[in-house]
């Protein structure tokens, strides 16, 4: 019980030492770069980038008409390949109709009559021109113009939506677009970041794409840093912190370690082994001892000879019990326990003359003390040397740059220690425990020496490997997922498709409409000319028939 607190404090010191920090770095790095962790990291990246996949699918599914072969591309190709041909055809045909219309008009103006009769050629040419122009030129051009006008109206609606698309508008449209509603907010963030360009010049998409981490939505980049980078950075940082602390004091001079080693030296084990009064008070053999107020107080004696003072409290030894037992009994002790052993020598025993119950009880009580102190039931284990003898690590010393007498043995190509069992009595066990100060001090010296020797090399070499093959590639990946190029490209698509392509279609449609309307106007003029001319011819023939 007395050792529990200082041992816990010393253990905490070792757990927070540079050596432990180096071990923690190895463990953390092993965990972060293990196959299972890399798989988890890949899954986290895949999960986190679902928003990008959804954005791609949204654009692909809803704008596929604009880029699929049988969509806008086909229309463009048709317009590019066929519109010039159609236009040339319409121009040639219209030109022929114009010539015919001019012929009809000139004949009407300059040769309305042949002799005394009206010339029939003008109204026949006008009728032929008018009847052919409408189905061959007017209707096709007006239909094409109307189709292009209607098409550009739909394209313009899509363009307006694309031009004003942002996160809020996408949230409003998500249901109509049959989007994955669980990723609506992620998609809205991606659109704000990568299409609307409202979050800086070159934002990192992983800062705005969320993934579920520990039950809460968190940015993917933040989660990746927390689970992959931060533990490694923290582990390496702890090396410098603990190195500074140990360089100032050293492990063996640490307050907790010194408290433990001082307690081991200044609080002998045999002084800490006290009887439990309740166990003896229930035994009738000791009734006389407990009935005496003075002896009852000295039942709680240690297993050592002399009294000892610990934390201001005096713990009586066996000699104090003997002195008080002798003064409280009328019997004479045949063999006493003279200092420093307090116990009988070979062949001697503690006996009492007469039948004094106090002496008899004291004899039995001290016999138990004797057994506790003299029986070799305690473990004073050490390590085994290569020759099979006992090896005590307290004898380890550093000669030059090499530690000797460290009890390490080369087994199967590795330095190992082999425990060797040794039994001892309480006096030897007490000395064994007190010598643990020497063992701990020399072990701490070696730990500090080895740690300081290899820490800088480990920090530079090991950290360089981690940076080169893990942290730098991970940082390159996460830092490279930017979308600063997308807003200009997206605006370029809108400009090309809407403000150029759609406007071009509309202008072509208007040209066809104007062209068709012009030919229609000519046809109407020819109709009136035909009407006037044919009526004259009909009236003339009617008059001839009446005559």
Quickly list its features:
547 residues, rod-shaped, three-stranded antiparallel β-sheet, single chain
What would you note in describing this structure?
The chain has 547 residues and is mainly alpha-helical. It has helices spanning 4-15, 18-33, 35-48, 50-62, 64-67, 72-110, 121-163, 167-173, 184-194, 220-249, 255-266, 269-272, 277-281, 287-291, 293-297, 318-328, 357-374, 426-434, 436-480, 486-546, and strands at residues 113-114, 117-118, 210-213, 216-219, 308-310, 313-315, 378-379, 382-384, 390-391, 397-399, 402-404, 409-411, 414-416, 419-420, 423-424. The strands form seven sheets. The chain has a three-stranded antiparallel sheet, with no helix packed on it. Helix 1 runs antiparallel to helix 11 (255-266), helix 4 (50-62) packs across helix 9 and helix 6 (72-110) packs parallel to helix 20.
